């Protein structure tokens, strides 16, 4: 999916400056210093990797969650139950990033002895870009997998009722010399947040991203924001969204579909759910051998001949990795509306 292009009016902000600024905002909203940095880092790293739909444009929304809408800034997630390497984590109405970080860390710990572990999360909230959580497993030579439910923004295939979330899933797979494989995607052709970025910049969205409220394809952001997101792969994307939604909610008792709330009235605080999986590579194969083979797979992709209209082929996460390296040098491009939202929270 193309990133929203940088425009001349964008302002470039250093990532460290941005992280400190957003962390301070969240501390004033009631989060502890450690929790504020986790949530801020999830937004800044999204912007660094070019995923602006899940970046700091969400700061005003998050502050409202913490100060008005009922998310508990002092919540402490806990393991509610478990058997062997299967855990149920209760987020206690914490920010989703806090609940997911806690769950992934417990899963990584369990997987170190059991080979694989999964935590089903309830009592959570919006958790930002999932790769932020899945990539925590990489430092332990583990594969991280994270799925989440989401507010309904899609219809079942052939319908027009907004009853299904885009329910994304993310994978992080360690490599050796090459950047890790990182794949984070919803089962819609785009995200609601990405369409918001295009709307802020006064740009039309690509064809195939959205329907209007009557189920007609549209490239107009205003119609898309009140309409429906298009699924990837027609009925296949809908089916996968249903499955990830079930795994992310019904194993833990979290809310599913319309139980979560809606895009008009907002989410019900503390009702989101996620599923978090850690897989220890060493339980299956020597990690050095595994990572060398992942490197080879990445190089095969990179060496593939590009089709007309393409400069080269990228492994999953490689384009985002290169964007991060570039933005760490140049700063992160932020539009005027996002900057105004930050200033309004300070």
What would you say this structure looks like, in words?
The protein is an alpha+beta fold. The chain folds into two domains: 97 residues, Malate/L-lactate/L-sulpholactate dehydrogenase, four-helix barrel (Hypothetical Oxidoreductase Yiak, Chain: A, domain 1); 186 residues, Ribosomal Protein S8, Chain: A, domain 1 (2-Layer Sandwich), CATH 3.30.1370.60. Helix content is 38%, strand content 18%. It contains eleven helices and 14 strands. The protein has a seven-stranded mixed β-sheet. β2 and β3 form a beta hairpin. α1 runs antiparallel to α2. The longest helix is centred in the first third of the chain and has 19 residues. The radius of gyration is 19 Å and the shape is globular. The two termini are 33 Å apart. The relative contact order is 0.17. The mean pLDDT is 94.
- The Rg value, from CA coordinates, equals 19 Å
Any idea how many domains?
A: 2
- The fraction of residues in strands falls at 15-25%
What share of residues is helical?
A: 25-40%
CATH architecture of the largest domain: 2-Layer Sandwich
Shape: globular
Spatial strand arrangement across the major sheet: 2-3-4-13-5-6-7
The biggest beta sheet is recorded as: 7 strands, mixed
Low-confidence stretches: none
The CATH class assignment of the largest domain is: Alpha Beta
How many H/I helices? 11
Structure summary:
The chain is an alpha+beta fold and 346 residues long.
């Amino acid at each position: 999916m193309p990133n929203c292009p940088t425009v001349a009016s964008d302002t470039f902000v250093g990532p460290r400056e941005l992280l400190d600024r957003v962390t301070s905002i969240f501390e004033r909203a009631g989060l502890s210093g450690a929790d504020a940095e986790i949530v801020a880092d999830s937004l800044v790293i999204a912007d660094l990797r070019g995923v602006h739909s899940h970046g700091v444009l969400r700061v005003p929304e998050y502050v409202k969650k913490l100060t008005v809408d009922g998310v508990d800034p002092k919540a402490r997630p806990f393991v509610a139950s478990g058997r062997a390497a299967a855990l149920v984590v209760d987020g206690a109405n914490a920010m989703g990033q806090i609940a997911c970080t806690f769950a992934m860390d417990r899963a990584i710990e369990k997987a170190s002895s059991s080979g694989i572990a999964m935590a089903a999360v309830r009592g959570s909230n919006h958790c930002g870009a999932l790769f932020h959580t899945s990539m925590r497993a990489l430092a332990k030579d583990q594969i991280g997998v994270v799925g989440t439910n989401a507010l309904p923004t899609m219809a079942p295939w052939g319908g027009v009722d907004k009853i299904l979330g885009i329910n994304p899933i993310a994978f992080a797979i360690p490599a050796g010399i090459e950047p890790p494989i990182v794949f984070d995607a919803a089962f819609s052709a785009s995200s609601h947040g990405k369409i918001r970025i295009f709307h802020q910049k006064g740009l039309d969205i690509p064809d195939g991203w959205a329907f209007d409220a009557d189920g007609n394809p549209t490239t107009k952001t205003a119609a898309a924001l009140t309409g429906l997101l298009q699924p990837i792969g027609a009925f296949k994307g809908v089916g996968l969204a249903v499955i990830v939604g079930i795994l992310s909610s019904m194993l833990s008792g979290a809310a599913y579909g319309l139980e979560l709330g809606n895009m008009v009235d907002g989410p019900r605080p503390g009702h989101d759910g996620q599923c978090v999986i850690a897989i220890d590579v060493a339980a299956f194969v020597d990690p050095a051998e595994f990572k060398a083979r992942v490197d080879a797979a990445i190089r095969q992709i990179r060496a593939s001949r590009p089709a007309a209209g393409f400069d080269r082929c990228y492994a999953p996460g490689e384009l985002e990795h290169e964007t991060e390296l570039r933005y760490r040098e140049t700063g992160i491009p932020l539009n005027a509306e996002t900057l105004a939202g930050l200033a309004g929270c300070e």
